[in-house]
């Protein structure tokens, strides 16, 4: 039996253009700082997980090389970044298989509250798993695939994007391979919108030990105050322009 070799893959979108949906609350330089801080928190967390043989960053951002050096990871330069996330993950999966890795755990860099215990749980017992299999950790709405563990060579085509959780499960069914589902609390919060940042603040209040670098960036830019101001402005707009009354609810106002 071949020795199990598990690598963690972290795809990194270029930090300059990261998190566009936060543009209403953060400037480009602030979004870059937040994105990098979240990746660093994940890399620091991975140091506490046993059984990982290596970490690979796949990116076309020049800063990825510095992060890889700082945290003892490897870096793979993404070919043709315009091809998207699925192409980048497929490229990395092929690269790792050629290097002799038997399993790959794909984690995304916008999971700042991720815990070493949940990472270990997602990667547990792979020695006893089928030769070809996929294990998924969804987001809180069970729409995204925030953690994906698979055997190598990759047994399915990756389907990141809208409703990837459902599409990855369907791909496993079509390929006739096992698909384990493992909801993990620390992997359910990915940061894409101001509302996600509000949920992150709640998580930070409940655990003072997590998200060291992300917490520092949030505090530096006083994000809590900004979000509260946005919330108050939204309430003012709602009071000035209330939605339809109950008697109007069934009326079609489409142009």
Top keywords for this entry?
40% helix, disordered C terminus, alpha/beta, Spore Coat Polysaccharide Biosynthesis Protein SpsA, Chain A, 8 helices, 255 residues
Strand order of the largest sheet: 3-2-1-4-6-5-7
Q: How many strand segments?
A: 7
**Overall CATH architecture:** Alpha-Beta Complex
What is the structural class?
A: alpha/beta
Please trace the helix and strand order, writing H or E for each element. EHEHEHEHEEHEHHH
Distance between the termini: 65 Å
- In DSSP terms (H or I, runs of 4 or more residues), the helix count works out at 8
Give the C-level CATH assignment.
Alpha Beta
Helical fraction = 25-40%
CATH topology: Spore Coat Polysaccharide Biosynthesis Protein SpsA, Chain A
In the residues, how many domains can be counted?
1
> What's the name of the CATH homologous superfamily?
Spore Coat Polysaccharide Biosynthesis Protein SpsA, Chain A
Shape: globular
The largest sheet, given as strand count, sense and whether it forms a barrel, is: 7 strands, mixed
Average residue pLDDT: 88
| Poorly predicted segments | 235-255
Q: Work out the oligomeric state of the chains in this entry.
A: single chain
Radius of gyration: 20 Å
Assess the beta-strand content as a share of residues. 15-25%
Describe this protein's structure.
- With 255 residues, the chain is of the alpha/beta class.
- It has a single domain (6-234), classed as Spore Coat Polysaccharide Biosynthesis Protein SpsA, Chain A.
- Helices cover 40% and strands 15% of the residues.
- The chain is built from 8 helices and 7 strands.
- Strands 3-2-1-4-6-5-7 form a 7-stranded mixed beta sheet, sandwiched between helices.
- Strand 1, helix 1 (28-46) and strand 2 form a beta-alpha-beta unit.
- The radius of gyration is 20 Å and the shape is globular.
